[in-house]
């Protein structure tokens, strides 16, 4: 690992935290609460906000600071139904064409609801509708992108997505690696740490109490359907309990832990390059991803002066600086014009996958939940937080399609993803067989 790629003062904390570090909230815990939400990230805060707008004051607990997890560490890329099919191409075969169409319509509507939320609550988060480009890492991946475009356009009733041929890639990104791609217009980006901070402020403004540094240690359901919670700060009672811990779900909630696969995702931020050079690499200043098994996701910073780049630099937990070196190699292999560029930040955060690679919202033994972002959580978890709130409030006019998905586990799985190095090796081999030759350094 060469120190030449690290700028002086390199930090292993998120670049996003420079503008919006997670905030401590030392609220005193009440003995009783109408609703207790475990997890102070996007899903939990969205639930609290929707409850507050309907007259119910929620108590949000997080063992870290509010927004400390993936909610303030992610890439800040946004899409509606565009994330459906990102990790599996057999959606219609697996779930049926009508059900997939319903999920796609819900996903597209969720994006518009998200934009409306930002405007209604005046959330300061650098939101922009930039569109999203997904690069095809192999010629055969274009078929999957064509199917995704059809799905999105059917859901929208308009051309919201279109395929880019190989000779059109240069207009989107300065690389020769991709065999074509997909542009999704109903997509964009924001500053995730600013978003989660503003969402927390909005939830508090509508009556929520936010308490950081409080860990759930266990809970029991009472005969009347209410809950007794044991926390690191004492016991409390709640009429309703909601779980929004996603990639940080722990042993206090074993049923849910057995259904989630926590995966570390890593990101880097380049030093300031200036907008001209960033535009040379990413001409249309969109948010970006690709179709590889070991996928990349990247974008310009909101001020267009840096490039932020993420991916699965390791399939085991590793030091962010080691992962940063791997991501730097990925970046300059993809965009050779960036050779010599140094990095100022490298960090990681846990995302949660379900075994079916789909998001899940619902109720289990009285516990409400919104879990499994599958790497695309900003719009989705905001939406599913609202869905969970409506469930708590007594229902809505339309039940979420995603609430009808069975939330499955696997025999003997307890929440420890011991198989991830094996999966990583298989994914690396698959990408190489598809023609993606960069040395990945996956561990």
TrEMBL record:
UniProt keyword list: Oxidoreductase
InterPro entries documented for this protein: FAD-dep_OxRdtase, FAD/NAD-bd_sf
Keyword Signal attached: no
One Pfam assignment: DAO
Domain called FAD dependent oxidoreductase: residue spans: 35-390
Record has Oxidoreductase as a keyword: yes
Name of the protein: FAD-binding oxidoreductase
